[in-house]
Amino acid sequence: MKNHILFILAAAMLAACAPSESDLQRFSPDKRHLVTLQLIDGNLYYELVRLGQDEARPVIQPSLLGFDLGSDMPALAGNFRIERVEKSSFSETWTQVWGEKKDILNNYNEIRVHLTETTDNPRDLIVVFRVYDDGVGFRYEFPEQPNLREFQIMDELTEFQLAGNHTTWSIGAYQWNRFEYYYDEAPLSAIDTVHTPLTMRTDDGLYLSLHEAALVDYSTMTLERTGEHLLKSNLMPWHNGVRVYAQTPFVTPWRTLQIAEQPGDLITSYLILNLNEPNKIEDTSWIEPSKYVGIWWEMHLDKSTWGSGERHGATTENTRRYIDFAAEHGFPHVLVEGWNPGWDGEWYADGVVFDFTTPMPNFDLEGLAAYARERGVRLMGHHETSASVLHYESQMEDAFALYERLGVRAVKTGYVGHGREIKWFNEAGEEQREWHHGQFMVRHHQRVVELAARHKISLNVHEGVKDTGLRRTWPNLMTREVAMGQEYNAWGGEGGHPPAYTLILPFTRNLSGPFDYTPGVLDLLFDEYRPDNRIKSTLAKELALYVVIYSPLHMAADLPENYERYIDAFQFIKDVPTDWYDTQVLEASIAEYITIVRKDRNSEDWYLGSITGEDAREVEIPLSFLDIDKTYIAHIYRDGDNADWEQAPYDFVIEQKEVTAADMLEFRLGRSGGLAVRFEAQ
To answer: Tens of pLDDT along 572-610?
Structure first.
């Protein structure tokens, strides 16, 4: 689709007179959303209304904007006057380098409010709102100015005064294990301080998600409940309490609110991507969505170890076995964890033990990289930092250069450590500890992604900073974890993820961006290794997760011998792509069920994933999403008639049938069950 751009400067500079109410209003292109700003006692407030045919539904009631700059500077609030207002409109269709949808419409109406103080030494602030059909984004801009140069943000005063006691799904912030917790479902009035995305359902049927976009050189935003239905921005602090160090000119991340009538429409909202800058990598030919296998799950099962010894997993012999398996079955990458010195002892307590350029004595890095290339496969690199980021940065240039020379095109990074375990030393030699999600680490991750891009390396970040759409600007930032992944099924205290967990992720964690969940474990019980744990799903559900949970780098996480045992089911994992032309959500209910379809970007095939939670379910799926003039062979991988995660997880059927867009498929999905279908175009 050819890009087209419409940029119309609309409303005028209003410096000479106070703006009217209409001057401070902005509709979305479809007239559904209306943002209104108002100045009260020198403070700027905003509100958001959703308009229908017969009613106006308040979404955000009047909420404060501004900053506390600490004791050395007066707050940027309470002394404002509006200098001028500018309005504009923008529309384009841009193409993702890779993604869940190839072509994305970016269409919004913008309002820019220029504020200046009424003091003797006035400072300027610009507040920018972009109003979309699927929500709103706004940010602050600090222009270059004589009365504000270097400054510290001690508190961002941004409020979100919600219109009711909505049902929320959230994870508490400021916890030792970062984002790796199960989601709580609770009324808004019962939450405390939570991470974003924060997903909500209103009593009158709206679905909302609060998050942020384009997080660069700033602290991540959490949301603190300061009133019954009032949320306020709470920025992750530095060790000394400063939230953000800044220098004009300066812009904040966008604060985002996505709005939908159906929960599935949150998934197909691309507002966060649209608020990020366009791609900055000129040649993207080396960035390739794909799947990988690797030496990983066997360590979580305790079949082998990261550290040295008789059970060391990252040996030359074992790696060659995985390379052969990848080559035979068409997987482009082989991840190897535990290949380098530093894994012995309590490595997670002291990451300065890691060496990122020297392999273990029993791991022939050079020879294995060459062997992989000969077989049409690449090693996937691995850098576990144990949150000692300055130690990592001291070796990072050499480490990425080594991988580039060896033909490695993707690296998994890790930052295992308690929530405030980022360690560094100041000029006085004093140890400082920072939060994983403060400005210190946001800056670090930006350095990593830019350096990786220079070495033509894509990133798969674990225990990192939450996604805010930067994959549009830096498409080598392919996927992240920042949540509880498959590994908790092996050793987590719950004995495995509850059945509803993967039915909450698409409406919460995945709204921020791709998630390297590492699905595809077909040996659901693994009694030989971890008898107290299991995967609380059916076999078909584990296949369906490849479609339901989006990632451009998906792992086939199980052991090679288990794929040989379930070779017929394994075929779906081999077939399913990781780069899509289109995505549609056919039906969804948070924590209960979802059916999602995606069209392959490189063929005419479609793929379907449908999963259930605690309850079994009959599904009726109209195939109207298929191309109307084509016939397809539906390769169906489904729960059997008695499938049940607890009683019969392996009750599994594979069948084929010819279908068209006029057909309907009907199936029974068991408890924590699933359905995966490849629609192969004829």
So the answer is: 999 999 999 999 999 999 999 999 999 999 999 999 999
Q: What are the DSSP calls for 479-536, one per residue?
A: EE--S--THHHHH-TTSS--TTHHHHGGGTHHHHS-B-----------TTT-TT----
pLDDT in tens, 453-469: 999 999 999 999 999 99
Report the SS3 class of residue 581: strand
Q: By 3-state DSSP, what share of the chain in percent is helix, strand and coil, each rounded to 5?
A: 20, 35, 45
Domains in the chain with CATH codes: 6-274 (2.70.98.10), 290-574 (3.20.20.70)
Q: Burial-class residue 18 by CB neighbours within 10 Å (0-12, 13-18, 19+).
A: exposed
- CA 38/CA 401 separation, integer angstroms: 53
Whether 432 contacts 426, CB under 8 Å: yes
CA distances from 71 to 37, 56, 153, 236 (A): 28, 42, 11, 19
pTM of the shown model: 0.95
List the beta strands (DSSP E) in 228-280.
230-235, 244-247, 250-251, 254-260
Q: Is 55 a catalytic residue?
A: no
Q: Is the dihedral of CA 585, 574, 480, 458 positive or negative?
A: negative
SS3 547: helix
- For 167, the enclosing helix (H) or strand (E) is strand 167-170
Q: How many angstroms separate the CA atoms of 671 and 634, rounded? A: 23
Whether 218 and 195 have beta carbons less than 8 Å apart is answered as no
Q: Are 415 and 389 in contact (CB under 8 A)?
A: yes
List, in order, residues 6 or more apart from 505 with CB less than 8 Å away. 483, 515, 517, 549
Active-site residue, selected from the candidate residues 212, 463, 487, 680: 487
For residue range 149-199, what is the model confidence (pLDDT) as tens digits? Answer: 999 999 999 999 999 999 999 999 999 999 999 999 999 999 999 999 999
The phi and psi torsions of 634 (rounded to 5 degrees) equal -90, 115
